Amino acid sequence: MYDFWDWWQHLPESINPFLVDIGSFRLPYYGLMYIIAFATTYCLALYRVKHEKRFGITKSHINGLMTAMILGLVIGARLGYVLFYNLFYYLKNPLEIFLPFSFSNGIAFTGISGMSYHGGLIGVIVAVWYYIRKSELNFWQMTDLFAPVIPLGYTFGRLGNFINGELYGRVTSKPFGMYFPLAPGSSLRHPSQLYEAFFEGIFLFAVLWSMRNLKWAKGAMLAFYLIGYGVVRLLIEYFRQPDAHLGFVFLSFSLGQIFSGFMILVGFSVYLYIALTREG
Q: Rounded CA gap, 188 and 279, in Å?
């Protein structure tokens, strides 16, 4: 048993985050995880359209919606990180917002570092709303289509975080803690990326997928998604190390928890609006 825990605790130290690492060319696993996440969402959406005739849209619409979601996610997640997490730095270094270089001490290739889930969510909603308006589709119906399938993609994104050794958890004395090379000190830490991969991904997907064909009003799945993700993320943040340059922003709450709390309130507001307007 000791051998297992020793292997488990030192696992992050033995992982090479690059799929290809030849000279100056590096291809990280993280990008591959994003591709798998998008492909999973796309395939599940196509499956639903094929087997659930109520949506009445074509593969072309799915392609357009996925393109809008990807663009909205990437742009929104990046701008969200800049605005919510490190605004003053990027005001001084605006070229680094979308260029994969650091200019603070000469020029150094860094890749695009820093993405915000909540910024990405806003970006996706705006991009999808714009596409739906242009294509004359029903916004609530399209959110019902995608809300139950999107969480499974988070599983792969969080596994990418784990492979990178980033977004590690708080210090723990439990044997299932791990040593993360990027973390300060030499203490065991919660593998919070794996917690998120399971609960934000597999668990939330299983819950929403099981609810998808029940008799809800149009748009209810979006409300359940917002509430479900907000609750799960708020709880898991208690095991995740807050960003070093932010720490706890209000009492013992991290910025992620505050955003998640707001997300829960928005979810209940969406459901209340749907109930009062009887979208069906």
A: 50
Distance CA 230, CA 233 (A): 5
| pLDDT band at 258; cut points 50, 70, 90 | very high
The tokens for 207 are 């819950």
- The confidence band for 67, taking pLDDT boundaries of 50, 70 and 90, is very high
Domain-located, residue 204: yes
User: Which strand (E) or helix (H) includes residue 55?
Assistant: none
Q: Does residue 49 register a pLDDT over 80?
A: yes
Q: What is the C-alpha separation between 241 and 161, in angstroms, rounded?
A: 13
Q: Name every residue whose Cβ is closer than 8 Å to that of residue 206 and which is 6 or more positions away in sequence.
A: none
In a domain, 182, yes or no: yes
Domain containing 151: what range? 2-57+137-210
Number of domains in the chain: 1
Secondary structure (3-state) at 26:
strand
Of 224, 231, 228, residue with least CA distance to 204: 228
Query: How far, in Å, are 61, 131, 239, 248, 265 from residue 136 at the CA level?
Result: 11, 8, 43, 44, 29
Q: DSSP secondary structure string, 8-21? A: HHTHHHH--SEEEE
The pLDDT tens digits for 4-44 are 999 999 999 999 888 777 766 667 888 889 899 999 999 99
Is 109 within the bounds of a domain? no
Report, in angstroms and rounded to the nearest whole number, the Rg of the chain calculated over CA atoms: 20
In one-letter notation, the amino acid at residue 51 is H
Please state, in angstroms and rounded to a whole number, the distance separating the CA atoms of residues 100 and 111: 4
Q: Is 240 exposed, middle or buried (0-12, 13-18, 19+ CB in 10 A)?
A: buried
Output the DSSP codes for 169-193.
B-B--STT-B--TTSSSS--B--HH
What is the pTM assigned to this prediction?
0.90
Q: pLDDT grade, residue 103 (50/70/90)?
A: low
